[in-house]
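Sorry to interrupt, but I need a hand with the structure work. Go ahead and set the record down below:
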Amino acid sequence: MRILLDTNIVIHRENKIVSNYSIGHLYRWIDKLKLDKVIHPYTVSEIQKYRDSETQEVISVKLESYDIIKTIREPDDDFIKLIGQTEKNENDHIDNCLLFEVYLGRVDLFITEDRKLRNKADLLGLSNRVYSINGFISKVTAENPDLIEYKALSVEKVYFGDVDVNDNFFDSFRSYYDGFDSWFARKCDEEAYICQSDNGKILGFLYLKTENTTENYSDIEPTFDPKKRLKVGTFKVESTGFRLGERFVKIIFDNARRRKVEEIYVTLFNDKEELVALKDLLERWGFIYHGIKHNGEKYEIVLVKHLNMIMTEASPKFNYPNFSHSCNKYILPILPQYHTSLLPDSQLNSENRIEFLGKKPHRYALQKVYISWAATNGAKPGDLFLFYRMGEDGEIKRFKSVVTTIAIVDEIIENIHSENELLSICQNRSVFTTEELKSFWAKHRYNLKVLKFIFVKSLNKRLTLDYLWDKHIIIKPNGPRPFTKITDEQFDMIVRDSETEIEYIE
């Protein structure tokens, strides 16, 4: 199989100064899968124009390890019409030539960090063959679990002083910030969150700082009003295909709630390729552009997440962790063999301790999927539901079936058009295997529904089916059916009796 690599991929891979460490992970997967690395003649031409002659020479030598397409096919008029955009300059023409290779089937896949190019691919119906680095890694991670190189990825809280600042994971920070190592050393007794693979490789790092109303924001334009804020001081996650970024986003939001701040903010340089994915991740979860922060002769963009307010036109994902009590409430049953793998934070004390995250990307995701072919009973984005873990066979289910988790509906997808569309929607977010998803499609394609939901909280005390019967929430001797609707009072009673607190925004 031939995989075409965009110029931006090749330059970042072969540059003498590595600026995107996810590139290495991408190339390891390409080698594992024995894919042929292909580049376009226009990539060679672009590299020959590279302004840094030393870098140009280094990269040119390394191009011998790639297959170069030997003939150029120029996009025809029909292809340009499908895109619906005229070529305004040479870069547009080169982009179209690269996509034309995929369109004609002369290459099988195309990897690019250019969002504009990927948008064009969507217009051409090529979204299942054109990927970003992270998108490709997510795809192959889901499809090839036996080739995943880590047993588990653990996120833990550590002291700065216990972290090796000389690890090349921090090289990019050193290139952005003068005196980074000295700053890191001064933080030796402060805590941060770190993700390491089982062999000790750093894959993610997060430092959070609480700032009070007296904080000086004179270097931010426009300046902040006095508020208690959580600053995302140092944040980086490598692409692994494991939704680690979402795991860290959850940590940010959990800390914001715990520290009772009004806003969260982060500053990012916007001229670095590796920060594009991080910026996109934060914007998907509700961070919005505020302004700039002056940093000597350079500046960073400032993104802010407003807490304690709901934007009515935005999605639940954008508003999270803010949500309203003014919504419908449901109970959703889930089989025991799927419960803890999908919701590892809600593992029962009575269960055998599973490997908390392990080689299951959906366990790291904050947004996950639930699949059903039952009627949704009016459920819509923003509604709340309770996961009900069904008891094991042979158990006394009135005592072993329990309510474990609160979640919020982000999206309900119906009218799924193909098996590939189903697999794409569920990629790395579903507890089901590819074979199980294909089986669902074969048997239930006409009424199949994918519910995208966001984990809110595990219940502190697990209430049983017997409790639901006793409180007349579920009619005896039955258990809840999918999308069993309950009243506000019943929902509030379950939350209260489970000794759990929830903060609503109205």
Remarks:
- The two ends are 53 Å apart (CA to CA).
- The domain at 324-497 is CATH 2.30.130.30 (Archaeosine Trna-guanine Transglycosylase; Chain: A, domain 4).
- Residues 164 and 176 are 18 Å apart (CA to CA).
- The first helix runs from residue 7 to 14.
